Amino acid sequence: LRVWHRQHLVVTAIERRPLKDIRNAEIEAAGYQHRARYIEDWNRGVAIGGGLTWSTNPGVAVIHFRHVPG
């Protein structure tokens, strides 16, 4: 935890796109091995109370960044 506390990120781009446009590589980078599990977790966590389920395909912010060594 302490190591990451000293890390820095620089935002290089922000874009908005439909949730279902997420690429498999992005799902894997988020720590998921399967799209189905990602969808389940999205619907369980993010969609609660807001109606932003996978099937509604809401617009989401995609933030691109690069790591700056500390």
Description:
The chain is an alpha+beta fold and 70 residues long. 31% of the residues lie in helices and 30% in strands. The chain contains 3 helices and 2 strands, in the order αβααβ. A two-stranded antiparallel sheet has the order 1-2. The longest helix is centred in the middle third of the chain and has 12 residues, at 35-46. The two termini are 14 Å apart. The mean pLDDT is 87.
SS-derived structural category: alpha+beta
Shape: globular
Please tally the β strands and state the result: 2
Radius of gyration: 14 Å
Task: State the distance separating the first and last CA atoms.
Answer: 14 Å
Strand content: 25-35%
Helicity level, as a percent range?
A: 25-40%
Oligomer: single chain
Mean pLDDT: 87
**Which regions are unreliable across 5 or more consecutive residues at pLDDT < 50?**
none
| SSE arrangement, N to C | HEHHE
- Number of helical elements: 3
Q: Major sheet: size, sense and barrel closure? A: 2 strands, antiparallel
The side-by-side strand order for the widest beta sheet comes to 1-2
Keywords:
two-stranded antiparallel ribbon, 70 residues, globular
Secondary structure: elements and pairs:
Blueprint: H1 2-5, E1 8-18, H2 24-29, H3 35-46, E2 59-68
Antiparallel strand pairs: 1-2
